[in-house]
Amino acid sequence: xxxxxxxxxxxxxxxxxxxxxxxxxxxxxxxxxxxxxxxxxxxxxxxxxxxxxxxxxxxxxxxxxxxxxxxxxxxxxxxxxxxxxxxxxxxxxxxxxxxxxxxxxxxxxxxxxxxxxxxxxxxxxxxxxxxxxxxxxxxxxxxxxxxxxxxxxxxxxxxxxxxxxxxxxxxxxxxxxxxxxxxxxxxxxxx
Length: 191
Hints:
Strand content: 5-15%
Number of strands: 4
Number of domains: 1
Shape: globular
Number of helices: 6
Order of helices and strands: HEHHEHEHHE
Distance between the termini: 35 Å
Largest sheet: 2 strands, antiparallel
CATH topology: Substrate Binding Domain Of Dnak, Chain:A, Domain 2
């Protein structure tokens, strides 16, 4: 079952991850939060899958991978095997398109589009953190654009993957203090 393989891949990455910063430091807390969010969405994904909700399982796994990959990119999360690009899970993916998939994909497109207009880069331009924030912005925007592309082709699974994965990157960037929420706080996973 392909959706379960995505969840298994996420679990393997979580098991291979650990906080990089010094224990007890603020950055250590952020890294623990990032790994914790990836773990929570892994667990949610399998909970959804057990109830037959393959759409939300799929979106949860993609979102969790986005969180974890952003944490690895920032250096907040260390891994023994650094594989930031997930395999092409959707090759040969033949899940049927359902009304639920269509609704969730178009909703995530609207939410991520609105989220991108509700944030700004936080670090000073002269800080190395500014480059990290820029990469998170570019990665999120790139996934949003890929999602649009696949949505236009009625490839809802691929579009949902990109919207969810990109959203994970953006939320992790906010948690890491690289991105500031300037509006619509309800769109983000923030305390």
